[in-house]
């Protein structure tokens, strides 16, 4: 890989990325890939924070509705990977 090339996202990398984002936004360092956004205390503000970070990383408009429809990092990663592919 060249120094300026963006890393290629893989499903595992995307899951790890989303776990890190969820942990930071929800302030839960022990959050896992299977942690439910709602059960972890997520709300509309934190959902917008998550999609905002995804938009910065992927350079694409990630709808906040995806966080509500796919409330775990694992589920959301599958959709993000399918729709946006590379970080």
From TrEMBL:
Looking at the record's lineage, which domain of life comes first?
A: Bacteria
SUPFAM superfamilies, sorted: ACP-like
What is one process in the GO biological process aspect for this record? amino acid activation for nonribosomal peptide biosynthetic process
* Record-level Gene Ontology MF annotations: phosphopantetheine binding
Q: Where is the Carrier domain?
A: 9-84
The UniProt keywords, alphabetically, are:
Phosphopantetheine, Phosphoprotein
Q: Where are the transmembrane segments?
A: none
Q: Which PANTHER family match?
A: FATTY ACID SYNTHASE (PTHR45527:SF1), NONRIBOSOMAL PEPTIDE SYNTHETASE (PTHR45527)
Q: What protein does this entry describe?
A: Carrier domain-containing protein
Q: From what organism does this protein derive? A: Streptomyces griseofuscus
